Every structure is written in C-alpha cells, then in structure tokens.
DNA sequence: ACTAATATCGACTATCGGTCGGCAAATGGG
DNA sequence: CCCATTTGCCGACCGATAGTCGATATTAGT
C-alpha cells in the first residue's frame, strides 16, 4: 500500500508520532517499528527522512525547547506585570508540563528517558539563558537586583527550577512541595539579591 | 574451560570489569558480551548473578556514590579546618573525578551515559544531603549561616555543584571556569547566608 | 559414596537499529 | 504526449544486542 505525500508533510507526521511515543513510552522503549506502525510507512521511508532514531529525538527536543522559550518570551514581554513576577512566570511557563494535556506531566521525565532529559536540559539552558539575561539586566538597572555574577545566577536558577520540579530525580511527597517551592523562591531571591520577601505574594500561591 | 569460584568473588569480578567498561566506553556502548569476554565467563553465568545489565549498573552506582560519600565524610570530620571550607571540600571530594586516575574524568559523564548520570545524581543527593545537613546545622548554631530552608539549600548546592562541574551539560570554554566557580561560590554563600566573602580565600585557588 | 545445592556453560531466540537495491509516483522540458 | 529525472517509498535483509533455558559440572554436607 503506497501513499505518497509531500516531503515536509511526511516529516512532520513522523515527528508528531515519534514525539508522542517518546514522551509516553520513553525514548529507549520506543522502537522505530512502533513509529512505522502508527505512521503506516516502511522502514526505508523513515530513514529516507531521518538519519537515525536519535536524529528524530534531537529534532523533537529542539521543538519542545523552542515552544517553551516562546511561552517564556511572552511572559517576559508582558509589561503590566512586575519584573520579578514576570521572571518567575517565564521560568514556569517554559516547562513542557504547562502546555497541552496535563497527563503528560510525569511521563516525559522518567528513568528510561535519561537521554531525552539530558539533551533537553542542555538545549533549554542554551535557549533560555539569553532571554533571562535581558530581564535580569533590567532588574539590575532599576536597582531591584544586586549581584555580581548575573549570568551564573541565571544558569543556576534555570537548572534548579528544571531539576527540582520538572525532572523526577527528587522523590518528594506531595506534602513536601509547598516547602520545596518556598525554599526555591528563597534561594532565587538571595541569588538575585532582591529585597527579601519580594516574591512573598507569589509564594502564597503554593501554600 | 570451566573455573569455579565462590559466588561473591565472581560477583565482584563482574562488577569491577563492568564498572571499568561502563566508565571508559559508556554504559550503552558496552555490551554484555564485552564484559563476558574480559571476565571470561559464559552468558549464563552473568545472568546467574545479575538479573539484567541495568541491575549491574545500579549496583555500580551505589558503590560509586558510597565511596564518594565516605570521602566527603572524612572531610567533614576534620575539625582542624573551618566549617565552610570543610563543607566546600566535602562537596569537591564527593565527586568521582577526584579518586583514582584522572583520565576517567570526562568519560563518565557523556552523552551516551545519560542513564548512568541520572541514576547517579539521584543516589548521590539521597546519600549526601544528610551529611551536609549536620554540617550546616552546626553553622547555623554557631551563627555562621543564616537561612530558613537549610535542607532545600543543601539540595540545591549539591545539585548545582554536580550539574555545573561534574556533568558535561554546560559547554564552557576552559577560560570560563574561574568565573563559573566564583559565581557558584557566590551563590553558595548567599544561599547559606554567610558573611559575604567568607569563601574568598577558597576562591583564590581557582583564579 | 550419594545427594543437594551451587556454579557454569553456550546454543538459541526475539528484537532492535540500520542498510540497500529496486520500484512507483510526480515533475517538467522538449 | 512521451520520456527522463527527481522525489518518495518499499520491505527483505543484516549484524548486533539483551536475555532465556536446559544441560552439565563442581562443591559441600552427611
């Protein structure tokens, strides 16, 4: 059964299906054959569009990171919100968990997805750091933040936000989360050198 | 050729060889057959001792983390050194890079080793947090540190130290490292709430 | 010496990611 | 309108892999 489609269409089809499978089943546990079955193409077609299974993964990660960065950018540009809150919301909005169906939440970051996870972290940092750098520079200029190593603070905050709350490396009880979030905000405030409690009302949201 | 050995001996043999291979070649790129060839046993023997290749990985990680924690513990117990420096040295000593041959350094934390890396991070945090908790509590009691969420600060510091300097997710130039280390120390100081510059002489070491 | 527990073997299987040569459909120029 | 070239597609095949299993050899207890 041969159905011909324009190249870019096929490519997107494969990416969509693969992304769904990688996120729900895990990258390692998803075989190329699994993808073929759903997209309903032969092996040769898959490798006509992608050099390897890992190439598909890389493309998907770029997509996910880019979508997150665009959401973050929207948050940062909303001048009606105070700067610190904007930054906080950008960090939250960036996380893939906040788009689409909520069921995906736990699936993406699982043991079998270590490779996806690692590549994602790397790409996310590279994409997000410049965005936050602008925002933090604004905070420094307006005497809201006081710090000597803005770039390093941003990297640390992004990394912590991701590792603590998006990955599943910390196995916390549900009941722990409010305290963990408060701790994170406190550390973020200190690294940025804000007036203590600047994020206090934000903190209420999680109490 | 059949050579029989006591169970525990064989098990340790397998673990030693596997660890060496995983660290130098990477977990994914090391096949069970690679291990068999060196230990000089048949497949059945391997699976007589370990349920899967991944079970071997898990055992190895526990070993590595435990060795690191023991080194860290020695640092923390050295009363002749000021507390902050002790903590800093414990964090550094914990890293697997600091034991044995230096060549291993880059190998362990590579793209193909994402699974090893992730499991390691998780186990390391669980093992190291309680150790540092004692030390930080001492710092709080002696009015050296001032912070409301000690546990969360420790988790963050451990995580950052590991992710920034042990993994290879940040692709920095060699020339960047002094600044990155200074930034890390600054953030650490702020999270712990020490007198600013408390770690200043430590910082000299990396300038 | 017999038995039971322990340790070892290696052929075998299912599945995987990836290759390759050939076929079919669209394209477009003469 | 025909034919050649490009583009899209096929699926049998390959080597390697993690893991299985029933047979066999060694050791230890009595």
From TrEMBL, chains A, B:
<feature type="DNA-binding region" description="H-T-H motif">
    <location>
        <begin position="31"/>
        <end position="50"/>
    </location>
</feature>
<dbReference type="GO" id="GO:0003677">
    <property type="term" value="F:DNA binding"/>
</dbReference>
<dbReference type="Pfam" id="PF21303">
    <property type="entry name" value="TetR_C_39"/>
</dbReference>
<dbReference type="InterPro" id="IPR001647">
    <property type="entry name" value="HTH_TetR"/>
</dbReference>
<keyword id="KW-0238">DNA-binding</keyword>
<dbReference type="InterPro" id="IPR023772">
    <property type="entry name" value="DNA-bd_HTH_TetR-type_CS"/>
</dbReference>
<protein>
    <submittedName>
        <fullName>HTH-type transcriptional regulator EthR</fullName>
    </submittedName>
</protein>
<feature type="domain" description="HTH tetR-type">
    <location>
        <begin position="8"/>
        <end position="68"/>
    </location>
</feature>
<dbReference type="InterPro" id="IPR050624">
    <property type="entry name" value="HTH-type_Tx_Regulator"/>
</dbReference>
<dbReference type="InterPro" id="IPR049149">
    <property type="entry name" value="TetR/AcrR_C"/>
</dbReference>
<dbReference type="InterPro" id="IPR009057">
    <property type="entry name" value="Homeodomain-like_sf"/>
</dbReference>
<dbReference type="Pfam" id="PF00440">
    <property type="entry name" value="TetR_N"/>
</dbReference>
């Amino acid at each position: 059964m041969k159905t011909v489609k324009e190249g870019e269409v096929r490519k997107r089809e494969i990416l969509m299906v693969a992304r769904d499978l990688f996120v729900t089943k895990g990258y390692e546990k998803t075989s190329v054959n699994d993808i073929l079955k759903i997209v309903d193409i032969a092996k040769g077609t898959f490798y006509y569009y992608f050099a390897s299974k890992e190439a598909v993964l890389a493309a998907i990660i770029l997509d996910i990171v880019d979508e997150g960065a665009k959401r973050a950018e929207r948050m940062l540009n909303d001048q009606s919100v105070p700067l610190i809150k904007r930054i906080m919301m950008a960090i939250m909005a960036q996380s893939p968990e906040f788009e689409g169906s909520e069921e995906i939440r736990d699936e993406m970051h699982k043991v079998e997805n270590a490779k996806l996870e690692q590549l994602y972290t790397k790409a996310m940092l590279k994409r997000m750091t410049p965005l936050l750098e602008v925002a933090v520079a604004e905070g420094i200029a307006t005497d809201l933040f006081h710090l000597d190593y803005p770039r390093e603070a941003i990297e640390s905050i992004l990394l912590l936000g991701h590792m603590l709350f998006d990955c599943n490396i910390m196995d916390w009880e549900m009941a722990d989360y409010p305290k963990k979030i408060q701790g994170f905000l406190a550390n973020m405030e200190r690294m940025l050198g804000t007036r203590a409690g600047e994020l206090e009302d934000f903190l209420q949201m999680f109490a």
